[in-house]
Amino acid sequence: MRGVGPLLLSTLLLGDAEAAEPGPAEVITLRLTDDADAQAVLRAAAALPGVRPLAVGALPGGGGLIDLGAPPALWDELAALDGVVHVGAPWRPSAKAVVSEGRAGLDLAAWDAGGLTGRGITVAVIDVGFWGWDGAPEELPPDQVALVYGLAGGDPHGAAVAEVILDVAPEVELRLYRVTSAAEFIEALTLAEQDGVDLVCASLG
Questions:
Q1: Phi and psi torsions of 191, nearest 5°
Q2: Which residues face 1 on adjacent strands?
Q3: 197-201 own/partner pairs: CB under 8 Å, 24+ apart
Q4: Once rounded to an integer, what is the mean pLDDT over residues 146-159?
């Protein structure tokens, strides 16, 4: 799996980083300069009273995003930390539609003819929620599927995506990563790479 790079980061920011000031919510995202040490910035931010680290999306070679819980009175001080280029509201991913949870709508003739089952392949599913994933073992067998990042959440979208993958490749192993921000998305990608997954599925917008 290829590493996470600056192009992905700029895509996740969805626009001009200078365009929006932090909103009233106490959860904010620090965007770092390309050469910043994310862990050093996190330590400096966490030393401020009332700051609560939530997620660190560090990019290889420097830079990335950090999610924090922080009182609005500290936002200017956080923005002034070395290595911080912008403070803003977190990007919240949204789920794309799952057209089918079965094989009927898929053209799998060539796939099936090739005897492809996904054996030996591990897939990371990164999504906004996996509600109910552990309640249907006949669809998502616990010996093949594990939630490894975050809580299941209240959205079943990721569980539906996982079911589609197993419908197509019934012997694949799935690792589920639930994310709620761009920083968590990068963190999940980093962990998936460290976990040695072969493919990543992220049906997000």
A1: -65, -40
A2: none
A3: 197/1, 197/122, 197/123, 197/124, 198/1, 198/121, 198/122, 198/123, 199/1, 199/121, 199/122, 199/123, 199/124, 200/1, 200/123, 200/124, 200/126, 201/123, 201/124, 201/125, 201/126, 201/161, 201/165
A4: 93
Least confident of 19-23, 59-63, 94-98, 198-202: 19-23
The separation between CA 19 and the C-alpha centre of its own chain, rounded to angstroms, equals 24
Predicted pLDDT of residue 7: 44
Return the pLDDT at 2: 47
For residues 92 and 55, give the distance between their C-alpha atoms in angstroms, rounded to a whole number. 13
Q: How many CB atoms lie within 10 A of CB 93?
A: 20
Check if the beta carbon of residue 50 is closer than 8 Å to that of residue 22. Answer: no
Least confidently predicted of 34-38, 63-67, 83-87, 100-104: 100-104
The arrangement of strands across the sheet holding 84-88 comes to: 52-58, 64-69, 27-32, 84-88
Please state, in angstroms and rounded to a whole number, the distance separating the CA atoms of residues 187 and 149. 9
